[in-house]
Amino acid sequence: MSLPTPEPCNILLLGTGGREHAIAWKLRQSSRLGTLWVEPGANAGLLELGRVCPEPIGAREIFRLNRWCDRENIHLVVVGPEAPLAEGWAEKLAEGERRVFGPTREAARLEWDKAYAKQLMRAASIPTAEGRSFTAIDAAIAYASVRDEPCVVKAAGLAAGKGVVICETADEAVEAVRNAMERKVFGDAGSTVVIEEKLEGPELSVMALVDGRTFWVLDACQDHKRVGEGDTGPNTGGMGAYSPVPIAEEALLAVIEREVLVPIVDALRREEIEYRGVLYAGLMLTPGGPKVLEFNCRFGDPETQALLPRLRGDLVDILWRTASGTLDEAEIDFDPRAAVATVVCAGGYPGHVKAGDRIEGLGEVGSAAGAGEDVFIFQAGTAPDASGPSGSIATRGGRVLAVTALAGDLRRARDLSRDAAAKVRFPGAFHRNDLAHRSLGPAAPRSPRAAIAR
Ligand code: AMP
Ligand code: GLY
User: Fold this and answer.
1) pTM above 0.70, yes or no
2) Considering only CA atoms, which of 364, 365, 378 is closest in space to residue 304?
3) Residues with CB under 6 A from ligand 1
4) What are the structural domains, with CATH classification, of the chain?
5) Measured from the CB, is residue 303 less than 6 Å from ligand 2?
6) 252-279: per-residue pLDDT in tens?
7) How far is CA 163 from the centre of its chain?
8) Residue 46: which residues within 8 A CB-CB, separation 6 or more?
9) 76 phi and psi, to 5 degrees?
10) How many CB atoms within 10 Å of residue 443?
11) pLDDT tens digit string along 20-79?
């Protein structure tokens, strides 16, 4: 049943991080928003934008949460992270006229089971790395030990972005298999592993809103996964993102829509699974064309912190329509300015970090913005600092916050974001200075086509 967007629309936003802060910030710009509720564990930025839901947020309390949603007349539940979707919260919280933005457990399987995603891609001829899935360790080791090319060993389940190991040699691949399947370093997520060829090329994040039938492909983003400048050092949850991506011109996005997004949603439909929410394709632009590395069933983090400040349109209406199957009537457009989100991290990240350091300088980040430019802060690992003056905040995680700058061109947006991030102070704070280097750096392609053909 299609329902018009409620006005006012009361929303419960699940998730506690930077992506959710950006979503909440954008929701707050809508005249349709009623009361915005956030989780009890939300970061300090989210706590400023929403009222705190008094119910505990956990799989075991879902019944109570549902009753609470009834009492508070929640019209829409927006699910930020993947874990609740993998646990089937979307179907459990959608009741009566209440809608949930985010796919069902069955549809979210694209993210929580990489072996399943691989099988579906193969069946639908979607370009992806060649690979095989294993549930038996002996077979996985036998396969890994004869690899004479670099390969990638992936835990098939949800491993908080840490379950992927790039292996240059067969010995490394065998070790990665043992870590996942024998030593269980990713817990149950590694009971099944996918071993696939290592691809080369720039990465691209393409997110589409899908309402079951209609698609809306959002402007592309590029994330920076490695902790160090020049893409060196260990993988992280994301050190920054930018949008739009010069190499992702319209023709390339059309190929991705035609060869990846449409066939995967059709493949799900053939299994009688309807996808509603954001479908995120993580792609590598290889010399042979774009290939899928992974699907996610939610907005990317930190891509969202770069993308939403560029979104023109009413996010309450857009998310409601996606959740209720009327996306074709939504109005979506993007600010042509470039956005760069620089993530400020706590010392030691992606390893162990210390919490509880007071964050200073937030009031100064916007000072360098010129006419026609904007700077925003999206908090992630932060908490109110009870020991400081009113309104002060402290660190509570590895990725502390993102500073997003919007400017007329990508280089200026990057420089503004970088300089603004440098004004954020706490002991051990660091960030990457070279974001967007694949588009701006000396190795930047001369033309978009050259990048794809390289
Ligand atoms: P995933 O969670 O599958 O997206 O993998 C995380 C990161 O590992 C990706 O963003 C890539 O940087 C890298 N990766 C994953 N699969 C491959 C592959 N087949 N070849 C090269 N790099 C990969
Ligand atoms: N930025 C990568 C992700 O959200 O999975």
Assistant:
1) yes
2) 378
3) 129, 152, 154, 164, 166, 196, 198-199, 203, 225, 282, 293-294
4) 10-101 (3.40.50.20), 136-191 (no CATH)
5) yes
6) 999 999 999 999 999 999 999 999 999 9
7) 16
8) 13, 16, 20, 21, 24, 38, 39, 379
9) -140, 130
10) 11
11) 999 999 999 999 999 999 999 999 999 999 999 999 998 889 999 999 999 999 999 999
